[in-house]
Amino acid sequence: MITALDHVQLAAPPGSEAMLRAFYGDILQMAELPRPASLAARGGCWFAADGGRVRLYLGIEDAFRPTTKAHPGLAVDEIDAFAGRLETSGALVVWDTSLPPNRRFYTQDPVGNLLEFVEQQPAQQHAQQPAPTAEKPTGSSREPSYS
Question: Is 11 left (phi over 0), alpha (psi -120 to 50) or beta?
């Protein structure tokens, strides 16, 4: 029986750890986790949020290609403030209103991986808020694909 999702792993190019730490650690405010000594030589970074219940690992891949369809969906509180923090950092935020009543948007990490952020909302509260719009994130050589 499956009881929980242990972690999500995304790939990143060699030498991108500083950018990943700035984005996931500073902007997304995730805590960096120490990696086991047996894996440290491989490079990459591990991050956690919500007391360690949400874990996202970034592994180094020599033939890296960013994910433009597959992506983690991260639940957040106060989604407008969260989106504002990303936009202030220079990240493009793309709102998607296709699955009400939840509010959600997409962005890309600094190496081009697609990320989705979701805030669950009661149907009544969602109907009172205007639907923000924006362009699709760009920055990778391939156009992101939203589900």
Answer: beta
Q: What's the pLDDT tens digit per position in 1-40?
A: 998 899 999 999 999 999 999 999 999 999 999 999 999 8
Q: How far is the C-alpha of 137 from the C-alpha of 112, rounded, in Å?
A: 9
One DSSP character per residue, 45-111 reads EEEEEGGGTEEEEEEE-TT----SS---EEE-SSHHHHHHHHHHTT---EEE-SSTTSEEEEEE-TT
The pTM (predicted TM-score) of the whole model is 0.82
pLDDT digits (tens, 9 = 90+) for 31-88: 999 999 999 899 999 999 999 999 999 999 999 999 889 999 999 999 999 999 999 9
E strand or H helix that includes residue 33: strand 31-33
With contact defined as beta carbons under 8 Å apart, do 85 and 95 qualify?
Answer: no
CA dist., res. 16 & res. 81, Å (int): 27
